[in-house]
Structures are given as C-alpha cells and as structure tokens.
Design goal:
This protein has 17 helices and 20 strands. A hairpin with a 2-residue loop joins β6 and β7. The chain is α/β, with parallel strands linked by helices. The protein folds into three domains: 104 residues, no CATH class; 177 residues, FAD/NAD(P)-binding domain (3-Layer(bba) Sandwich); 135 residues, Alpha-Beta Complex (Polyamine Oxidase, Chain A, domain 2). The chain has a seven-stranded mixed beta sheet, covered by helices on one side. Strands 9-2-1-13-20 form a five-stranded parallel beta sheet, with helices on one face. The protein has a four-stranded mixed beta sheet with strand order 12-11-10-14, with no helix packed on it. The termini are far apart. The chain is globular. Bound molecules: flavin-adenine dinucleotide. The site of flavin-adenine dinucleotide has 39 residues, from α3 and α17.
Length: 490
C-alpha cells in the first residue's frame, strides 16, 4: 500500500469560513443540486452611493469581485501584476497543434458544487462540457496497475491487508470514499457549513484525523491509505460535512469543464470590466486608515498611487504577504496571512499523434504514482483531430524530458506516440507561485478560521483561500460575491 497516491487522493478530496450570517443562501446559489439550466443571477440593484474600490489581483476572484461591484454601480480599478488576467485559470493553445488546448491551472468543476460558477457560465453563454477524466481510472499501487473492477474485488482487496469492514465497504464504494466508513457518524452534527465550532468537536482541532480513523477501527493498511497524521480532525470532519451538506461525495466522479478552456470565464468578466483592469501593474504598498486606502503600484518604470474607499484583496496570501501594509494588519489577521499554507506543482501537457493507449486496450485516465508524474488524462477531447493532448502533473522543477521519461517508465502499454511535452512550472511563477490551499494542520483551525473571512478595516479578503472549502474556482467566486456584498453594504 505504500505507493498509494495519497497526494492525488488528498488533493482531489480536498480541492475546493465564520457564521452563516455572512453568506446568504441566495448569494451562494442555494444548497440544492442545480441543473445545467440554473437561472442566471439576478442583476443587483444599483447603489445610490457609489464607492471607489481597488481590487488587488485579476485572477478569477478579483475579476468576479470587480464585476459584481461594477454591476452594483461602484467605481472599480483592478490592479494586476502580470501581463495577463486569469491568474491560476490559464488556458494555453500556444505550442499545441490542430486547435488543441489545455488548462494549465484550474481544470474541473462538479455538479452539485460550483453553483456560482455554473450560474456565471449560463449568464455568459459559455458551454459546459462533461470531462471524463475520472472514468475508468487505472491506479498504480506498489508498482502494479489496478482497474476499478479489480479494486472492488474482495480477492484483490484482501491482498492489501485491509480489514473485513474496509473490504466490504470498498466492494460497494470508490476508494477515495474510504474515510467515510469511519467518519460518517460524526458528520451529521455540522448543520452550518460556515461554522465548524460549537457542535461538540472543538477539542478535535488538536487531534489528527488519522486518530479518529484508528479509534473507529481502521486497519494499518487503511490508515496508510487515508493519511491525515498532520491534519486537524475538526478541520477534516468539517470539510467532509460540507461536501455532505452540498450533496457531494468525497471524490466526485463526474466532472465538467468549460468548452474552449476555463479561462473563458475570467475572459468574460474581463471583457465586461474593460479598461477598469490594469495589467502589468504590481501593487507595491498599501496604506489604510478609517476613511480609506492608498495603494502604490508600478506601471512600466513609474510608481503611481491611487486612493479609494476600499481595497478588495484578491491576491493569494503568500503573494499578498510580500506587499508592505501600513499600519500593520491586526495580529490575528496577520497570523492568517502568515500561516495559511499552499501547495504548488507543475503541469505537463503531452501532445501525441494518436490515441496510442487504445491499441493497448487501456484507459488513459491513470494514477501513475511516480515521483515525477502523479497522474495522466486526456484534455480537449472534443477537438476534431487525430492528435491528442494529455495532461499530467508532478513536482515543481520537473523538466519536459523528466516528465516524459517518468511516463515512459511506468506506462503499461507497448508504445506511445508522444511528439512533444510542455511544462508549466507554477512554483517558478513570479506572482502566481502557489497552487491550492492545503488542509489545516492540527491545532490551527481555531486560530485561523475565525479570521479568514473578516475584513481588516477597509481591506476585505477574497480569493480561493477565503472560503470554507478550497474548491478553487467556486471558492474564488463565492468569496468574491461575499466581498462585493460586504463593500456594497458597508
Ligand atoms: C495546477 C492547478 C490545478 C487546479 N485545479 C483546479 C480545479 O480542477 N478546479 C478548481 O476549481 N480549481 C483548481 N485550481 C485552483 C484554482 O486555479 C485557483 O484556486 C483559483 O484560480 C485562484 O483564483 P484567485 O483569483 O483566488 O487567485 P489567483 O488566480 O492566484 O489570482 C491572483 C492574481 O493576483 C496577482 N498578483 C499577485 N501579486 C500581485 C501584486 N503584488 N499586485 C497585483 N497583482 C498581484 C497574480 O498575478 C494573479 O493574477 C487549480 C490550480 C492549479 C494551479
């Protein structure tokens, strides 16, 4: 069991704050599963007292927040450090042939889940496509590939030294759902998805979730697979409860993406915002006081300054922490800025001249579990060509040659037809060097969560990190709507 791809498992089950009073159900799009024909968001009423707002960062959160503020009649300026908008939502065509494209950053959405995202796609008439990357997954465990059928076969499961309960559970459920075998009875206590405290488990912030699995009877092999030795049990139970409240499994099998790439949505926001978005304008310094904010930024070689009533910070915290803020943030807010942790890794795109895996009678949706390549799957399947684009991921610093060599080392078929490899090395990005918010470690939920969503004077905080579940694009749009509402109503 050693090589079970825990990073992938945790990422996929993790990926995607304070009292419920902050977020109203209508703002969140409701908790009910929404169909593709979800009605578009109603246009908000124009304000009688327009405010001047600077939005820091033109990722999906910044663009969405600015768009919502603009719709309400406020005067917004979005300052973006890099020469493009979209941040971690990045669709790339350059270097790929035959009209192929790939999302180097945010990739998939779910349903239910991503209600605001679906609403915006509908509003801007952006088609959503099914994305079969999680169908018929082949998992490489201890150097051997297993199909989904094999991993539901009790004879195979016995060989992993799982206990009888685990074996029975896994014959009926997907592998990534295994934690639910032990946590299910805990989850119904959480009634408000923005409030993890006060349900009787506050003390579990100091316990690792692995301890709950162990206490509830997990085998050594099961524990190794589920991990969580560092993760706050309260955080993880709450996270699983949020998914349950939203009607989602831990690992949604059916996922979707936007036709022509997910950047279609940031592009649509940016189009509406027009010249309000200023690219190549890194923020250098923020001053704030009871009546407003002053932001210094750079445009070409010149330093410039804008004054405004509010600042909506939509820059991920590690990048935000590099910007001097005067006077200093409140200690509890600074603690959040300094301690919310992120992962960061590289994306690979392999272009091949054919669907070579079909000759080998294999699925290309694979968890490869190699130190240099975690997984592989097909992207842009709808493009009408014999060529294919395959997406992989691995640690930062992996070269195209290393990524290809790793794939070829473990690919279980005879021969591939890969003709080129592109790598996007996120950790090396100057302004967007993080990827996704990590689980909260033991003892940190009580110090972090009560201060993640709160404004610090005239500075408000949105972004994929600033919501209860770190499901990137949905968390970004939810938090953006929250901040637009906070500033509008301030
Ligand atoms: C490889 C990868 C895979 C992912 N997969 C998924 C997925 O499948 N589904 C999903 O929903 N999410 C996914 N995500 C997460 C998702 O992409 C992000 O959570 C989301 O895009 C973050 O949006 P944001 O607006 O909060 O931040 P960002 O996109 O980081 O935007 C912040 C912006 O601030 C700018 N900035 C930084 N410093 C400054 C400065 N000093 N001055 C001005 N501007 C500055 C940056 O250049 C950037 O444009 C993935 C991310 C990555 C990298």
């Amino acid at each position: 069991m050693k090589q079970v791809n825990r990073r992938n498992f945790l990422k996929s089950t993790v990926a995607a704050g304070l009292g419920s009073s902050i977020l109203t159900p209508d703002l969140l799009g409701g908790k009910q599963p929404l169909e593709n024909n979800t009605p578009a968001l109603a246009p908000p009423a124009q304000t009688a007292a327009p405010k001047k707002v600077i939005v820091a960062g033109a990722g999906i959160a910044g663009l969405c927040c600015a768009y919502e503020l603009m719709k309400r009649g406020h005067e917004v300026t979005v300052l973006e450090a890099s020469p493009r908008h979209g941040g971690h939502v990045l669709t790339v065509r350059d270097g790929l042939s035959d009209g192929l494209y790939a999302d180097f950053g945010a990739e998939n959405i779910t349903q239910p889940g991503y209600e605001l995202f679906w609403n915006y796609a509908k509003q801007f008439n952006i088609p959503v496509l099914p994305y079969p990357k999680r169908e018929k997954i082949l998992r490489r465990i201890n150097g051997q590939f297993y199909s989904e059928e094999m991993l539901a076969d009790p004879v195979v499961l016995k060989k992993f030294n799982l206990n009888a309960r685990e074996i029975k559970f896994l014959t009926q459920n997907e592998w990534p759902e295994l934690p639910l075998l032990y946590t299910k009875p805990y989850l119904s206590k959480f009634k408000d998805e923005y409030q993890p405290f006060g349900v009787g488990y506050d003390h579990l912030d100091n316990t690792p979730i692995s301890e709950i699995y162990r206490k509830e009877g997990a085998s050594k092999a099961g524990l190794e697979f589920m991990g969580g030795q560092e993760t706050s049990a309260l955080f993880e139970l709450w996270r699983q409860a949020i998914l349950q409240l939203r009607g989602l499994p831990l690992f949604p099998k059916k996922v979707f993406r936007l036709q022509n790439g997910n950047q279609s949505l940031p592009n649509a926001f940016a189009k509406q915002l027009g010249e309000r978005v200023k690219l190549n304008c890194p923020i250098l310094k923020i001053n704030h006081h009871a009546q407003g904010v002053t932001v210094r930024y750079q445009e070409f070689n010149q330093e410039k300054e804008i004054k405004a009533d509010y600042l909506a910070n939509c820059i991920p915290l590690p990048a935000f922490s590099k910007i001097p803020v005067e006077p200093a943030l409140l200690p509890e807010k600074q603690y959040v800025v300094d301690h919310i942790a992120y992962d960061s890794y590289a994306r690979f795109v392999f272009q091949a001249s054919s669907k070579f895996w079909q000759k080998d009678n294999l699925s290309i949706n694979m968890e490869l579990n190699h130190p240099n390549i975690d997984a592989i799957w097909q992207v842009a399947e709808e493009v009408d060509t014999h060529r294919v684009a395959l997406m992989g991921m691995g640690p930062g610093g992996t070269t195209p040659q290393q990524a290809l060599a790793a794939f070829r080392e473990v690919y279980p078929g005879k021969q591939d037809t890969i003709e080129q490899v592109l790598v996007k090395d996120w950790p090396r990005e100057q302004f967007a060097f993080t990827c996704e918010r990590l689980n909260f470690p033991m003892g940190s939920l009580k110090k972090l969560w009560p201060h993640v969503l709160t404004p610090n004077g005239r500075i408000h905080f949105a972004g994929a990190y600033a919501d209860n579940l770190n499901w990137g694009m949905e968390a970004a749009t939810r938090s953006a709507n929250r901040v637009a509402q906070e500033i509008d109503q301030a």
